[in-house]
Amino acid sequence: MPSRGAWAEDMSGATVERDACINSVKDLLKQRYVQLNAEHIVGIGTVQERANLHRQLSTDIADLTAALLLWKKTATASAPVSCLPPEVLQNIFSFLALLDPPITPLRERPLKNNKGADEYEDINGELSEPQSFEDFPTWSRDDRGSLGWIKASHVCQSWRSIMLPMRSLWAGTIGILPLATRELMKRVGPSSAVHLTLRESSRRVLSIENALRLIPQTSIHSLRIYFTDENTRHSSLPDFTEYMRNVPWTALKTLDISANGTPECYFNLVAPALHSAKMLNCTMPLIAHSLRRLSIVYNRHRPGYDGLALGDLLENIHGSRSTLEELELLRCLSVHPGDKPQTSSPIHFSALRRFSFGGHSVDLIRLVGDHITYPRACDVAFHALSRKTDELYESHRDYQNPSAAFYFALRLFADELLARHAPYALVLNDQRREAPFVAVREPASLKYGGSDILAEQPEGERRVYFDPEASEHDVLYASKDMFYSVKRETDSSAFLGVQTLSVVRTDEKPTNAHIVARLFEETSKLTFLHICGYEREVLRGFCDVLACDYDHRGKKIDLVLPVLSVLRVSAGAKPLMCKDLAELLTLRTREIEQVKDAKQLAQLIVDKDVSLADPENEEKVVQQLKGLVGELRWKL
């Protein structure tokens, strides 16, 4: 193997040789220029001499262009990426198609004025598009679209020769670039599955006939279409639904339609092979006997909000009762007495694994419970709307407090466990990028003995979500706020009677000890508390009696959680401050003696995975805690 010095000399020699080549090429070009006597002929040459010079220069330029192309091809072939096998490049291009999808260009929509002349809408105004267009991140003002990953096929002939035969890659772009539909269909081929995507807004004209006339319906396996024009006079959704009715969709497997509040359609879409259907602000009745996933979601204040009759829905999906695995019905079901199903017998969906529904009314929960049943292992979630954001129903005579629906769902889920002679636990959970929720679970014994405290997931998860727009604070504040907004007749016994509670804080939202104390004041029967994620204010809420005096009432205040027996601390977003833990538990030990029939903490568990903010105080704090609690399990 050559030494480093010899290698450096070789490289230096290669550099000199390269420079010599460059100089020789430059000299050759200069020599040819002189040989042609170009300066003389251009200056004072005759017409014939100029014509001959032009012909010779054109020939030389063609030769140089061919030579330059050869050099470029050789340079591309010598690049490291060109050494990758075609199979690897195909995988890279497939990932690129996911990361950089093409974007449909915006353009003005021509309108007819009263005089018959064409006018164009102003595209300089703000676009009013729903937030559901996550797949199109460049949707913005003056967006002219993008080729996305398709630009990679323009890099070189080698890449293009690999990408063109990838039919599945091109099949996912049909409809996104309307003017290229004919060419894209050639690349896809007649026998490949087509994934069609169409978008329309007040600034984009969409002709259903022109968009679909080049595509055989029998080859469309996936259809995603977005109608965002709030003016139904301009929207093409009615034309599209009419087209869907008159065409057989025997191969369609996935349907995703978004609208801006267009009411439901009044005919059935026959799609025998349909597996997944997602509808936003619109409803299209389906006849599909192999449906696995169905989602119907309405945004607030959109036409059709809370307007879908459950009887009509069940009639359409009755044939999928043995195949449906996921069902989502948010803000779409009507609780009007006239919209109830005619039959009193519930429909059992034997394959259902996840069921999510939501609204503002207790009647909705009763309606769903009376007519839809599911296996015990099915995960069920109820989304309770907040009065603060549900202004549409503030003056409605049928409006009901969403807090009542929230606690009614908790009571219902808790009773499911009690009916099986099992206790229940509540889990207050903060989630990043999602609304906080309260889960109803069955407590399980710790592996190393001790008391029931760890709330584990049973066969089927049961959750009640706070409204995401109304829950700007952490889950403790949201629970307190929801609890103190209930009416007198609201059944909040599921929360009041809980004995095992777990607080999971995966977010770093700040909380307040007064809020914690006010919430725990209503859970006086709480015996086991599990805190996943250290927060000083949470501990202070049930250790410092001053935190309970949130109204500064000036009278004797008792410490909250008087019968708390077991406290467990698990790892979270923040490290545990040993010194704070010892100080607060010392304070609680002193204050709890003033409360009648209160109990000292029998067991303190600090999990092994808990990180410490002050490890230098660990040994001292451990000795101090042993004198405060009956049993200490420290990072075992």
Low-confidence stretches: 1-16, 108-142, 387-400, 447-453
Radius of gyration over all CA atoms, rounded: 35 Å
Q: How many extended strands?
A: 23
What multimeric state do the chains show?
A: single chain
Instruction: Give the structural class.
Output: alpha/beta
Query: Which band does the percent of strand residues land in?
Result: 15-25%
The outline comes out as flat
Number of helices: 19
How confident overall, as mean pLDDT?
Answer: 77
Portion in helices: 25-40%
* Major β-sheet annotation: 17 strands, mixed
**Straight-line distance between termini:** 55 Å
What does this structure look like?
The protein is α/β, with parallel strands linked by helices and 636 residues long. It has a domain at 4-80. Helices cover 33% and strands 17% of the residues. The chain is built from 19 helices and 23 strands. The chain has a 17-stranded mixed sheet that branches. A two-stranded antiparallel ribbon has the order 1-2. A hairpin with a 6-residue loop joins strand 15 and strand 16. The longest helix is centred in the first third of the chain and has 32 residues, at 4-35. It is flat, with a radius of gyration of 35 Å. The two termini are 55 Å apart.
What's the short version?
This protein is α/β, with parallel strands linked by helices and 636 residues long.
Task: Supply database-style keywords.
636 residues, alpha/beta, 17-stranded mixed sheet, two-stranded antiparallel sheet, 19 helices
